User: Fold these one by one.
Assistant:
Number 1:
Amino acid sequence: MVDVILGLQWGDEGKGKIVDYFAGRYDIIARFQGGPNAGHTLYVRNKKIVLHQIPSGIFHEKKINLIGSGVVLDPVTLRKECESVSAFGVDYRKNLFISDRAHLILPTHRALDKASEQSKGEEKIGSTLKGIGPAYMDKTGRNGLRVGDLMDRNFTNQYIQLRLKHQKLLDLLNFSEDISAWEQEFFDALEFMRQFNIVSGEYFINEKISDGQTVLAEGAQGSMLDVDFGTFPFVTSSNTISAGVCTGLGVAPQKIRDVLGVSKAYCTRVGGGPFPTELFDAAGETLRETGQEFGSTTGRPRRCGWIDLVALKYACMLNGVTQLVMTKADVLDAFDELRLCTAYVSDGQLTKRVPALLAKKHIEPVWESFPGWKTNISALKNYSDLPEAMKEYTEFIASYLAVPITYISIGPGRDQLVRNPVP
Ligand code: GDP
Ligand code: IMO
Ligand code: MG
């Protein structure tokens, strides 16, 4: 069976930490979409490490980690990351597997990402510039190169053909930066990739499932960045929701059991696009400083705001969330008052739905207010020790969403997680 851990907001909910926490219970940990736009932070032996391409189960010895077919893979990032995990004693040659159907991110995809953002001016998406959009465009446009193509003696030729196509687009966008250094490291990294276990991802995973092994699918980005159901066009280019597990790994929907949705106790977003509960005041600044809300991939300050239950309920619906894991609750420790958005006023109409054209609408949030708990919770061990005011806050959220909150994360450390025994 397959369980899923994915983000319910605009990314950076703390998925990496939660996957690392649960990974020991599974045989295989698999990324199913996205690419190095992801930045998943883990603490291993009290040292911080940020993973972009490799699944967050990599620090558990004897667990298989799979980069699935739905991922777009940058060999250069992969190589750097392999070097940093091996400094922790991880033998990635043994426990990292890559699907031959995963598409490659080429240097020109990164250039196209940059050129496209520059051409958009004020309307830019705020992409991480890792080449994600152009790589997925080449996949759906049926032009892309895949990991399996590396085995083909004709690979360099295929690369040159695609590069020529990209050059025409880059010329149209007036992009004239020299990317020869990127190409050099790309080809070096391709050589490095030859040492990996490259497998037919869909057979690999289904055979393991048939043998009774268990899979934890690790989402990247968040549900509100989903290309179909997120805040289009300010989204990423993949299906970040649970449906993406089936298309990204090649597993049937009946194989999916639990969907653990991860949400912060408040809300953040990095990059452009609508964010109804965004704060521009001292409270927003406090969230950013206390929560250390700076992008794990780009270092950009994250936009901060109160929790948005309208968007969260929408995400629970899209994903079929069976349990909610609430992270960064400790960041709210010092607040006198906490707010939650329970409805939107859009064009004068009260609604509890996320409109498809959210990016074009002016939204006024409707607020519910709760007193803060004013207690340092980061060292607590048991749910029963949590302050009453905090239980009221989380129980209100669980009841609004009609989803149990089974775990509450109270700090970045692997063990700073409290289980709710009776959700
Ligand atoms: P991901 O992309 O969803 O894996 O999340 P990121 O790693 O980009 O961002 C989450 C950040 O919050 C990281 O710096 C984590 O170390 C940190 N973090 C995770 N859980 C908690 C928590 O419960 N409390 C605090 N204070 N920090 C946390
Ligand atoms: P994790 O997995 C937060 C955002 C970018 C931008 C938009 C499109 O760490 O949660 P892209 O590079 O995909 O073209 O960017 O999506 N974005 C993320 N925001 N966390 C992420 O990943 C993100 N990956 C992309 O900031 O707004
Ligand atoms: Mg992140």
Number 2:
Amino acid sequence: MAVTEPSWAPSSWRGLPAAQQPDWPDDAALADVRERLRALPPLVFAGEARSLLDSLAEVTEGRAFLLQAGDCVESFRDHTAPAIREKLKVLLQMSAVLTFGATLPVVKVGRIAGQFAKPRTSATEVVDGVELPSFRGHTVHSDEPTPEARVADPERMIQAYYQGASTLNLLRAFTKGGFADLTQVHNWNREFVAASPAGRRYEILADEIERALRFMEAVGIDLANMPTLHEVNVWTSHEGLLLDYEEPLTRVDSLTGRWYDCSAHMLWIGDRTRDLDGAHVGFLAGVNNPIGVKIGPTATSADVLALCERLNPDRIPGRLTLITRLGAGNVHELLPPLLRAVAEAEHPVVWACDPMHANLVRTATGVKTRHFDAIMAEIEGFFVAHRDVGTWPGGVHIEFTGEDVTECLGGAEAVLEEQLDQRYLTLCDPRLNARQSLDLAFRVAELMRSI
Ligand code: PEP
Ligand code: CO
């Protein structure tokens, strides 16, 4: 079934109010970049987006779990093989923990290979006493704190395309070429993780997985010929924010004749751009990829139902993921009515919990951070709300990095407030480091078993 409305075209959004778009200074340069993007090959194949849709349909039925994770915003500077590999390792580790703990397939979706643009609450920010246009991601401008550097440059969208392409290429190579083979389960544990409590717990789990594999071999199962043990799917996703980038990468699929946004397998709409009559909803309503919408604390049940109707009128399972980010203090009160409303309307959705974006705090010295306990409290509230209403807690959506950063507070090997400035590297929101991410996965697996 197609979701495309009959009168929809990739450029239809231009007639609608488009929030959070950069102030491109030169229309001719922008038009030229759009034309060049339109002529470049798609980054993903529509058939892959359909495979992801099928996997997400399993999540709507409660037969699988979604792990969507990656950077808040990817950097043009940090475009190296180790950076990509370390992120993939953490994703594979988390997914092994969740799969083993919950005995369910985990659908792995990275915030990767295209997550280059940021919505901002305020148009300007003050850096070292100077007021500048807020940083909107490397696909728009540099993060250098000067007025010249913050001028939007459309050429950067071409660079984003090529960085997305080479990141995706390496991801495919790693995930299909042996790196993600389940027999490598020990090798995904890095030294600075392995020495932590979560890392030691992971070693025990990896031993158990190895024993299970040896057991299967011993009873005569031919593991060498089981592709699912040797290859995994890691899908790509980003916020479909910059419509001048998404539009030219939206193509008609040659097999089905339908529109797909071929910049990533899955796109999501941010909490700031989920206006029902706005350009982002109008744009993503017409593409056939699986899509997500962030649901913040101001969303009412009526808002959520209207989004379901508009974005998934044919009620295709797997098409729509609702990513709630309500805050640890709000989730108990705000989530159950939303769950009931969507269940009563019989909309098949994936419910995912983003425990990051409504739990941002500033330290006394003004550093943006998140506390691991608040993150876990929102996830726990999410599981409790689903248990009470009788719906399936379908997944988590988090911001992490494979590096040993000190951006979020707490975790089993606690990052303390006075340590935040040791390795605070993010370009935007604070991310969980590799240890905290693994710790989170163990705790989510426990919640899945106990609730
Ligand atoms: C994000 O996911 O980085 C983000 C900006 O989220 P939200 O739209 O939920 O604020
Ligand atoms: Co963020």
Number 3:
Amino acid sequence: MKLLVIGSGGREHALVWKLAQSPHVTQMWCAPGNAGIAEERLARNQLAVECVNLGADDLPALLAFAREKKADLTVVGPDNPLAMGIVDLFQKNGARIWGPNQKAAQFESSKVFAQNFMEKYGIPTARAGTFSDARAARDFAAALGGQCAVKADGLALGKGVLICGSVPEAERAIDEILVGKAFGAAGSKIVIQEFLEGVEISLHALCDGTTAKLFPTAQDHKRALDGDEGLNTGGMGAYSPTPFLDDARLAEVGREILDPWLKGCAAEGIDFRGILYPGVMLTKDGPRVLEFNARFGDPETQVYLTRLENDLVELLDASVNGTLSRVDLKWSPMPSVCVVLASGGYPGAYAKGKCITGLTQAGQLPHTKVFHAGTARSGDRIVTNGGRVLGVTAWAGDLSRARGAAYAAVEKIQFDGAQFRRDIAAKALRQAQIQSHSERMKFNL
Ligand code: AMP
């Protein structure tokens, strides 16, 4: 099979790395890819993955490329081309593609759509209202005592959510988005949700239009600094599985979310083939969906795909063909941890072109994979080319060792201004210690 993968981040490097292991794949391109993706080789014939200089949003050029190369399947990584309707465009032109169509991608591209859907079909979510009128929005926020999340309806590069702790703060957020148009047309409508407290986890389910197969849990670390301080980022690290839901409870939570979601999709004529990724807050009153994404999480993909034992090509094929009910997902029991190395200043302004050293040494460590995100090749060097630069990922027999291995690999890598969080998976380890202590108490060990 010939594959085209669209995107250039750590998620896409993980997808390419995993897809390249499949004996089905004879040739692979990535548009536009990055320096790490360009180093991957196919397990079947040792052919290099070829990066092609086409933007992930350039839909006509991507279609023309896929047709010219007779790609058997195009795999879409990021949200933007999905929201723009790349799947519909390819399908109309007889080109096979994996990902949700534009209508299905609305779960991510419109928070108003997603919130209304959750309420209509009884998916557990936060108390919320949707607004285009600032005065009504202010009244709703005031009724919540200002403790709320104000969210722009459309895609806003992950920056469209403002968490507020008081009425004046909420009013400022509403004015900024609805009146000041801080996010342009993406903010012509907003969702206001009550502020929820709890542990936030990521769920993923692979879907084929009628079946949804739940992944194990993962947890992202969205804030820039240790202790969940600092600005929101695209994600500074992740690990899987989390100790916050055991398998039985995960299955229950999955059903509470996915059963009504599948019913709603059937009722609304939504044919969702791709990854549904709900962001979930585990509150003391039960799970609550904060948002839906319609693609793989980044950096969750890096920890999921280092645990996945199935052939990913076969899974994506089944998702496109509607035959997922015949497939069982298989996961390595080894936990996986990904630590993101970012450019100094990220998520604000940052410099590019800094030389990265130590990649070879880090890559030689056992059970370790350094996924590239914002990197480029400059002559014989690899340099920084984005905010999130690398996703250093390691797996081991337990979470503590996986975490230690990921940080040991991080220590080998250097570039000017590199920043990373030192507490990825730290809360999970504390939780696991508490659990094992209370187990010991229970059994009087
Ligand atoms: P979203 O893009 O909707 O997931 O929001 C981005 C981040 O804001 C989430 O990952 C949460 O950390 C936080 N957040 C969103 N909604 C809420 C809420 N209702 N209560 C508390 N935190 C929230």
Number 4:
Amino acid sequence: MLDVLRRIVQEVNAAPDLEQALDIIVQRVRVTVNVDVASVYLADENNSQFVLMATEGLRKDAVGKVRLNNGEGLVGMVVEREEPVNLDDAPSHPRYRFIVETGEQPYHGFLGIPIIQHGKVLGILVVRQRKSRKFGEEEEAFLVTLAAQLAGAITHAGASGEMLRLLETPDEVSVALQGLAGASGVAIGQAMVVYPPANLDAIPDRKVTDVDGELAVFREAVAAVQDDLRDYANRMSGVLPAEDLALFDALLLMLGSDSLVEKTEERIRAGNWAPGSLRETIAEHVQVFEIMEDSYLRERASDIHDLGRRILTHIQNDRIASRPAYAQTVLVGEDISAGQLAEVPLEQLAGIVSASGSSSSHVAILAQSMGIPAVMGVEGLPVSRLEGQTLIADGYRGDVFVNPSVLVREEFVRLQAEESELTAGLREIAGQPSVTPDGVSVPLYLNIGLVSGIESELHSEGDGVGLYRTEVPFLMREQFPGEEEQRRIYRKVLEAFAPRPVALRTLDVGGDKMLSYFPVREENPFLGWRGIRISLDHPEIFLTQMRAMLRASAGLDNLTIMMPMISTATELDIAMVLINQAIGELIEEGEEVHRPPIGIMIEVPSAVYQVKAMARRVDFFSIGTNDLTQYLLAVDRNNSRVASLYQSLHPAVLCAIQQVVEAAHKLGKPVSVCGEMAGDPAAALSLLGLEVDSLSMSVSSLPRVKWVIRSFTREEARDILRQALEMDDPLAIKQLYNSVLEQGGLGGLIRAGN
Ligand code: PEP
Ligand code: MG
């Protein structure tokens, strides 16, 4: 049964549109469960009726016509109950309703299964039998399992089909694809689709007309890989043992073999583009090797996959190099990396639309800090079909419009204009201090990570840098940057802000920030080798970074060092030994270095309970609410499926912050917040009440937060916090803060910020 299930789901996933997806479902279900009728009803747009969308066994012309109001008939009963209804004699049930249009005869056996996604009934799968039949537990379990898996595929097929229609008839209707607000702002531009670098398995099929051109691209890539392999083997001869070098010969042999190259060329001639053809051929070869008895030959499967990846890299590099960005580029992908973001010149990057991730994903945070609107986690985004299409990405609401109508476009152009007016209004407070009306100063620092961003005029606004994510320059290279290269990067930032303090955070890779040249494969990367854990396991990397930071600060002395992901005091002790070693070495070498203030990020729950122990060892704390929220609430910050549970204004998060501030202040250590929470006007008000000493945020959020700080006294903020802490529901707390901002005349900030 598992096989059948898998096959049906695969077929449905591959269906080009909803109609075909539903037809596949009813055909396969009718045969598999051996019934007279299999049908699917789906909710209409208003959720007021359930419409017969596909059937095998009833009259086909009833499709689209039979509409059942909410609660009507047995179908209505399945929707209401949100569970299967299994009857051996449906007509005798009081909820039974005879539907003439379907050509129904009195069918007796009835089994209706709800198709549910994210807690909402999307539709019902119904099977019927003319004779009386009580469906068995096995059959019911099979259909429940199938329906649970079909919900996502149906949404996807629906969106893709809708999109196809829109692509064929642009400018008529504008339907929004729903994603999650990622980074605020509205983007209007043309879609530039990017794929994960050399991820062969994620490559879609695509039709080509210029077959000769495609063949040439493929042949060039194969030749380039042959050159690379020969080159590498030459360089490594004498370095690698002979058996390892033999691998390169084996790869070259495979590339020379007819089967791999010719099979791919055949597929290209049949009309698929080179990457798609390559994917299919490699998959075919890998399969052959994977089922071999001999373990040595089985191992070769991964070599073939690697070979495919190498060829694909060349094809992609050629395409990217030969593909200039649009004047207003909206970067679109299943998953967009920081590196891909950096490939588009900033002045041409209008927005980002990603099928995965959420507002707390690093790419969204980066977008926010660059002032680029982003929409994340767009389910059913037909990535492969969007290249060159006009898109509107609403980073406030999380909507994406493909080929919008003139009216929708005009509306968003108006919104963009309003937004720049608001920004202009906010600029009026530029230069004024971040002080509450009762005189409490709350310094506002900046979160930055892209050196090219530090020239922005707005940076003069920040009181310094509260978080410089050093991993960003690491992500954009092909190997670890050396000490001198790092020194130059850090020096630029320290110089740009001197004498204002700059907190350089030590390398925080792992989780969703993978270095292509230092791959770490783990089942649970966010609970794995991340941040300080990698640094301490690789003292050579950590020491190089420490030396570069300390040297960069020479003569400026505005450096502070901050360490991520600390979960025990022991880690801190080991890190301190290394930092002291770096300082000692540099002094010995005659460099003019001083011990900078050293702090840690509180982002692992264990650190919340150890502030006292930590405070004896460090100079300051900075709460990383992005991770702290994820770990406290056990909600993956990148997972769009659970994004609604990711709430920084959750009572548990507020209590944790309160506890950290109280414990740190008792020992005279200041506390900052540098997670995205600090840049959200409503949440910033909560942090003012929590007595956090300073806030650090992206440059685009700073004016809004300053406005909040200048509008509420500390006492008022404490009062609101007291009310918030009485509440149990995170959404109610958010509403409370939003309504307080509205009443304070700062409603514009929430509309533009939510
Ligand atoms: C955080 O976790 O809140 C934080 C600022 O670090 P990052 O988002 O880079 O993980
Ligand atoms: Mg973090």
